Amino acid sequence: MLTTGIRFTEDLAAATTEIEQAGGHVTQQLTDTAFIAALPDTVDPASLRDSQPTIPVGADEPTIFADQAWKDLLRKREESEGEEEEYWTWDNAGHTAPPPYEEEPGFTLAARHLNGSVSLGLVIVSGTEDNRVISETERKTILREVAEGLDFLTTSSPRPLRFVYNTSFITVDAKPRTDCPSKEACEKIWRDPALAQLGYEAGEKGYNKYAQDLREKNKTDWAYVAFITKYPQEHHAYARGIRLCMTYANNGWGPDKINKGFSHETLHIFGARDEYDNCSCAPSGRDQVPNKNCNKCTTKQVACIMDGTANKMCKYTRGQIGWGYDPLAEENLAESADTTAM
Fold first, then answer.
1. Start-end of H helices in the chain
2. CA count, 13 A, side-chain hemisphere, 253
């Protein structure tokens, strides 16, 4: 069994090699010196020489933020320990269901799968007006929630999966729209000034180039961009192409459930389909796995992050993101059911 925890190093390459030789792997590279590692229970963390569990004196601000966010996550888990996990579908009454994933030209789901290493361009966009400002405490909350969401994915993966963070805290002086007739109409108001501060042009070309640059810089298999803000959006969470957007208020779900929405939208980007509202049974992902846990395709739907707020993944979601699916098993199951019926 593997246990995850935060560690710090001055030599990430050496620390990664040492952890892998011990039978573990790095799951989240939070900064150049802070990372989350999964280690076998048989390994004494104190035996590792190229990394340590305590933050070094004089650490930079991003590393301090990362350390505090992880400690907040541990406290959150301790406080909820023993409580039964609430499960609500994403289209639960009183909430607006996140819209289906939208593809962009040149970025087809069939070409992607959630394996290997992934660069994450996490862009936290604050405004200058009081109700748009993201405070230091709220920044830590966002980092905590993102880390929790990705921890769910890395610990669920059948093979080592690693996310490499590139976190930017950006403040823009932009006046929000009072209405959102479309995602683009409201998003571009704050997104494009944020991209400009990162050194990229507006719109799709800008965030697509940012993702491409991160992939090349970090030498990862994949890359995507995540924007989180208090600016109004047409929907509180959605994904299109290789980027996702979320609001801090999270449509009434609250900031402490950003982790669930972040997992959900990240899975969209790698091939997973919704299983609620107007979902489709059609296949998706690199391996074209059917969406049979869609509420319209089964009378025995199981809890899944693509349907609601469960930290669980059904076999169809796992198959859609490239984690393995055996269509013959489905056929054999159907044949067995037919035989029994006879």
1. 12-21, 61-80, 136-156, 183-198, 203-218, 258-269, 315-320, 327-341
2. 30
Tokens representing residue 340 in the block? 């029994």
Digit-coded pLDDT (tens) for 306-330: 999 999 999 999 999 999 988 777 6
State how far Cα 202 lies from the chain centre.
24
Backbone angles phi, psi at 213, to 5 degrees: -65, -40
Q: Out of 3.40.390, 3.30.450, 1.10.8, 1.10.3470, which CATH number does the structure's domain 109-264 have? A: 3.40.390
| pTM confidence score | 0.93
CA angle 205, 234, 88 (to 5 degrees): 115
The vertex-117 CA angle with 196 and 267, nearest 5°, equals 75
Question: d(Cα 187, Cα 244) in Å, to the nearest integer?
Answer: 11
Residue type at 63 in one-letter notation: T
- 227 DSSP β-pair partners: 123, 245
Rounded-to-integer distance, Cα 50 and Cα 109, Å: 38
DSSP strand pairing (161-171 vs 116-126): parallel
